[in-house]
Amino acid sequence: MSISLLWSKALLTDRRVLWLLLICNALGTVYGYIWYGLQLEYTLEIKPTWMIIFVPDSPTASLFFTVALAFILYPPKQKAWIVIRKLFEALAVVTSVKYGVWAVVMIFWGVALGDPLYWQDWMLTASHLTMAVESLLFVRFFAFGWKYLWIALSWTLLNDYMDYSQHIYPWLTPLLVERLDQVRNFTVILTFASALAGALALRQARKIRSLNS
Length: 213
Hints:
Elements: H1 3-12, H2 15-35, H3 37-46, H4 57-73, H5 79-113, H6 119-137, H7 146-165, H8 174-177, H9 180-211
Helix pairs in contact: 2-4, 4-5, 5-6, 5-7, 5-9, 7-9
Keywords: Membrane, Transmembrane, Transmembrane helix
Transmembrane segments: 17-38, 50-75, 87-110, 146-162
InterPro entries: DUF1405 (IPR009845)
């Protein structure tokens, strides 16, 4: 194994780094739910209450990753909690890659169509790209396998279905709403691409572990 890879493993699994990432992601999760506040209220007014879980896509992805970091810090011993850990890890990878990339594409797709670019868009771009990158970086420290990746893919596809069949997708600018069919198609394709990215990262992680065993 290369020195840089050893160094990155030592860095990323350092408990101080893990705690820093957990706190940052937890704060980002809270901010994300606040960001969705108006849409959550609106959805509760016009839709069944249970649909609310499908509204805040990015904050929920960030929540999955935050919990996954907590499980690295405090690995569970009981079988039921191990299953929960693996499920959260797989969901963290697929949804963080998916919604991290999705948000950035929506921002600059809108800009290409004529939407203004605000300073908040740069903040959202940086934070969402970080979501995607950090989830893939941590795959080799996660415990989930292929079965859980399929579950995560199924959940994310269900989320896509709910978003675009019930019109509870993240609020878009008018120019993007005019192209909602294209946005929907891109979203579904991105779900499969995100699961594929997770699968490739998982395969690479297993290869690294086999070389060091």
